[in-house]
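INFO worker-7 received task bundle
INFO bundle size: 2
INFO processing item 0
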Amino acid sequence: MKQEKHPKIGIGMPVLNGEAVIGRALDDLLDQTFTDFEIVVCDNASEDRTRAIVESYMEKDERIRLLAFDERADIMLSFKRAYDNCSAPYFLFAPADDRWYRGFLEETLAVLERNPDIIACTGRVAFISRGRFSHITSGTRPLMGDTRQNLASYMSDPAENARAFSLIRHRALEGAFPKAEYPGWDFQMIARTLPKGRYCEIPRVLAERDTTTYAAYLKHAEAYFGWSPLRFFPLSRTAIEVWRDRRIPKSLPLARALVRLVVSSHLSYAAMRLPRWHRFLLALLGRDFQTRIAARQRAGDADQTESGG
């Protein structure tokens, strides 16, 4: 009888039409210095050779499993499928177009095992645009204060939310997914984990991600809001959901952070759609917001091979 294995780390890989990148992603993970893990590939009804490529890797390495879905899901459900099908004590979201340096799992796991109050750990993340280095995100900065401090710090500027791709304790994500997808759903997901512990950052680059243009995010928000006035404030739904969420402790600093988040998202919208209004607002609000918006709109026309959907 074959003995059932219980790996320490579960890696969930949501993918849609990822034939161009999934082999590279699997190579990076199989080359990790820490080896006690499983990779669960959740194929979101791909129409290319993604499944065949994964099956060829499965023949060589039994740590890989493929869950092939014939019905295409939205991005959030695709990520939730990946999480729900892993049960190891530690978990990693691993989109098929990301890259990981060889020590990523070993170094982040060591931090978590030494510090039971820390629920998630990542290295810094370099963003790549058109095959070239773009910037190192601020979205992995450590959140090491108390719960209310961390919530206010996080929601004031989640950046690209790269900390969602930390190595995290599996239990920390239990019940963290919102009921439905909306623009910024992943911000609420991370906010729900913060009462359970702190987020640590190893202060050197351990992973790479492709950039996604702000125009792509904006297109998604406009499709969601339609002609509602909320389209002018793309992260308004995020702020509303976080504030009404009973799992998230409230504070005056959090309220201020959410207002700042919504105003920042409106400035980003105005920069793309209402340039004159944007210039007026920048003059009114000052240089700090201008710096924030410039960072939010860094270059990058990378294809979205499903960083979930």
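INFO item 0 finished
INFO processing item 1
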Amino acid sequence: MNIVCPIRPIILAAILGLLSATAGLAKEPLYWLEAVAPPFFIHQGALKGQGYEDLLTALLKEQLPDYEHRHLPANISRHYQQWKQGENACSLAMYKTPEREEFAYFSIPSVITLPPVLIISKDNWEKFDNQSTVLLKDLLNSKRYLIGRARNRSYGTTMDEILDTHGSEATIFSYEGPELTLNLFKMLLAGRIDALPGLPEEAMYLAETMGIRDRIMTLGIVENLSNPRAMLTHVACSKTEWGQQTIAVINTVLKQQRPTERYRRAYERWLDPASIPLYRKFYQEVFLDEPQANTAEKSLEHQ
């Protein structure tokens, strides 16, 4: 004979209370989309985890304990896919463009970088008339140069507009694949392209790790120097109710952390010392300038 012992109400209540408490501890996942593009993120080697976006993501994670943080290496096309599918996914530093605003919410500025430069081989400097700065639209209109660019990567609104308006298949080589900047660097050194746009810290990191620092140089782009606000990037999350709420929380953290030395130094560590005074000027006068509330935050205020 099987004897079934009834569960006493007090024991049942305790079990239900424990289950409820456990459920309450469950954290919502937040996938951080990370491009394989040092020194933004460094996923391997002696400097693993020391990219400036690695350091800033780690700082945000410390301040966002209510999420289960997960990391997902992803190229830009994968970023777009995750957001369009409405996944619980964010990226630390994205340029805000009209196209991206169709499927992502954006925070207040999360990172400011120095403007992109044109990276060339020193052996090819004469082709650029030995100039230290260039007008990008003039280079493209001359049709004398082939410039490599990463497909779907934004270089800031100013440069994007010039590349899209004045570039053509004869002057722009678009590349998509792993380790975008590294492979474009190799094409540059092989003479397959004449130049590539990139951030100063990218040039420094790759030239150093490839042992070619004495073989490359950078040219300032005149159109970039007059608008440092074009170099502001933002945390971007899927354009869903979850993304809207997450951006609002992230904005609070950013307002607290951006003025700290730890936050500022995450990027500074990858700059040439001569570039730091200009960067600090931009940081104080542009980056920390009180921004307008973003679309997600405004929407929450009216709910």
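INFO item 1 finished
INFO post-check item 1: The chain has a mean pLDDT of 86.
INFO post-check item 1: Residues 9-25 form the longest helix (17 residues).
INFO worker-7 idle
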